[in-house]
């Protein structure tokens, strides 16, 4: 199975970092679902700006946690 760490840009230009095993489905959930991340639900629409793929969930979660600790500037440098 594949796991993804991703960065979304919200309508208000804020950034959201997440992890999933189905990237396409998760982005649709962020944009359309009544359930899911409250942060993105109130900042729609969101756009995928970056993703990385991993073989294991543990590696993906570690990377997600690492990126979440970064400031906005460093996240934007990764996206470009």
Automatic annotation (TrEMBL):
Gene3D superfamilies: GIY-YIG endonuclease (3.40.1440.10). CDD domains: GIY-YIG_UPF0213. Residues 1-78 form the GIY-YIG domain. SUPFAM superfamilies: GIY-YIG endonuclease (SSF82771). PROSITE patterns: GIY_YIG. Belongs to the UPF0213 family. This is GIY-YIG domain-containing protein. It comes from Candidatus Yanofskybacteria bacterium RIFCSPLOWO2_01_FULL_44_22.
């Amino acid at each position: 199975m594949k796991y993804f760490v991703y960065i979304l840009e919200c309508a208000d230009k804020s950034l959201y970092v997440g992890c999933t095993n189905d990237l396409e489905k998760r982005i649709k959930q962020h944009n359309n679902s009544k359930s899911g991340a409250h942060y993105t639900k109130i900042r729609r629409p969101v756009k995928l700006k970056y993703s990385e793929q991993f073989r294991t969930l543990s590696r993906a979660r570690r990377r997600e946690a690492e990126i979440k600790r970064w400031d906005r500037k460093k996240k934007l440098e990764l996206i470009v």
